[in-house]
């Protein structure tokens, strides 16, 4: 009897044997092309100005980042400065740089760069204050973080 | 008959594990590349030294809190700064800075107008950028960018004349494969057009 049994099998299932390979490929792509997120922004995400003459920052591990922008709370006016995970005053910038230096080897300290990620609406006064603080403690290499582009008219 | 011992390992959950890892990396990483305009701050000294710079060797750029720009007492647009700065730096109207005991030499690589009322030599040409505390940061970066662009353009031109390739090309080559011969060329170009930018106290 069973000889003649011709039960419908339906569609054969799609082979998922290559799925792990595909997913691993994606995984490796993301592992290579991305970097770890270090900080959660407490400020509104700074809209970086556009510049054409940009240089890529080398040695990511030697870069300390200072964020400047507006507070997320619209009622609070003025520029706020954020480092790591907290909002600080201008006068606390040196202690931030000192703590960053303490984490690095001594011979690497002179290659350390401070990257200023400021909103294009921020006022120059705040930036100049930070620069003055950095000069005070001899952190002389700085970089104004910008996105690459040629249309500068969006900056102002 | 012997039983077949090596049955296959079930790989069905492999995809799940890989997906889990993938999602973990997607969440914890970012893709942004950090790039920007690099600047070196001047070192702080106890007693400010009185360096006497002739008025004609300084290009005054002033920007006020309404983001209006004055270059040498004329209102200009951001897009004009590159041209004006290049004209000023490349003027070469006089003698360069004396090195050691040798007297300064006239600029033999400048393509400028040799106007005696403008800068003497690229090594003497100072660009002064004075901003107001209320100036928008975007404006400030734009001006810095234009000044940088002026220097890069001049270095590019000189590099094309001397080495038949652009300065950007040399820099790119140096970052890919640092050799002494390229470094000498880059240093030479930087030396011919040194960036001298001063930022006086902001307008209160």
What does this structure look like?
The complex is a heterodimer of chains A (156) and B (204). By secondary structure, chain A is of the alpha/beta class. Chain A has a domain at 50-155: Nucleotidyltransferase, domain 5 (2-Layer Sandwich). In chain A, 25% of the residues lie in helices and 22% in strands. Chain A has 3 helices and 9 strands, in the order αββββββαβαββ. In chain A, a hairpin with an 8-residue loop joins β4 (63-70) and β5. The radius of gyration of chain A is 25 Å and the shape is elongated. In chain B, β3 (58-63) and β4 (69-71) form a beta hairpin. By secondary structure, chain B is an alpha/beta fold. Chain B has a 5-stranded mixed beta sheet, with helices on one face. Chain B is 38% helix and 14% strand. Chain B has one domain. In chain B, α3 crosses α5 and α4 (167-176) packs antiparallel against α5. Chains A and B meet through α1, β1, β3, β4 and β7 of A and α1, β1, β2 and α3 of B. β1 (35-36) of chain A pairs antiparallel with β1 of chain B, so a sheet runs across the interface.
Work out the helix count of chain A: 3
Number of strands of chain B: 7
Give start-end ranges of low-pLDDT stretches of chain B: none
Question: Uncertain runs of chain A with pLDDT below 50, 5 residues or more?
Answer: none
CA-based shape of chain A: elongated
> Beta-sheet strand percentage of chain A?
15-25%
Major sheet summary line of chain B? 5 strands, mixed
Strands of the biggest beta sheet of chain B: in what spatial order? 5-4-3-6-7
Helical fraction of chain A equals 25-40%
């Amino acid at each position: 009897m069973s000889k003649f049994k011709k039960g419908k099998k339906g569609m054969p299932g799609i082979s998922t044997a290559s799925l792990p390979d595909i997913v691993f490929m994606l995984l490796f792509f993301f592992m290579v092309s991305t970097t770890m997120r270090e900080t959660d922004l407490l400020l509104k995400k700074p809209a970086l100005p556009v510049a054409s003459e940009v240089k890529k920052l080398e040695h990511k591990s030697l870069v300390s980042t200072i964020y400047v922008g507006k507070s997320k709370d619209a009622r609070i006016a003025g520029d706020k400065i954020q480092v790591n995970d907290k909002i600080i005053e201008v006068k606390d910038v040196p202690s931030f740089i000192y703590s960053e230096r303490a984490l690095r080897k001594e011979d690497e300290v002179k290659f350390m760069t401070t990257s200023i990620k400021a909103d294009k609406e921020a006022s120059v006064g705040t930036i100049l204050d930070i620069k003055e603080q950095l000069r005070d403690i001899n952190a002389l290499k700085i970089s104004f973080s910008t996105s690459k582009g040629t249309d500068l008219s969006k900056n102002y | 008959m012997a039983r077949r011992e090596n049955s296959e390992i079930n790989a069905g959950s492999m995809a799940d594990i890989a997906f889990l890892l993938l999602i973990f990396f997607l969440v914890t990483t970012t893709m942004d590349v950090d790039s920007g305009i690099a600047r070196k701050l001047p070192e702080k000294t106890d007693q400010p030294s009185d360096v006497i710079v002739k008025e004609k060797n300084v290009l005054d750029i002033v920007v006020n809190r309404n983001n209006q720009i004055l270059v040498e007492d004329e209102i200009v647009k951001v897009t004009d700064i590159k041209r004006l700065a290049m004209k000023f730096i490349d003027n070469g109207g006089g003698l360069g800075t004396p090195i050691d005991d040798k007297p300064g030499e006239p600029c033999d690589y400048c393509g400028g107008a040799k106007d005696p009322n403008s800068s003497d030599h690229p090594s003497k040409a100072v660009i002064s950028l004075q901003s107001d505390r209320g100036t928008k940061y975007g404006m400030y970066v734009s001006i810095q960018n234009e000044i940088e662009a002026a220097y890069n353009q001049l270095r590019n031109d000189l590099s094309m004349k001397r080495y038949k390739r652009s300065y950007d090309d040399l820099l790119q080559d140096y970052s890919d494969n640092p050799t002494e011969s390229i470094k000498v060329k880059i240093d030479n170009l930087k030396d011919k057009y040194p960036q001298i930018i001063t930022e006086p106290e902001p307008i209160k």
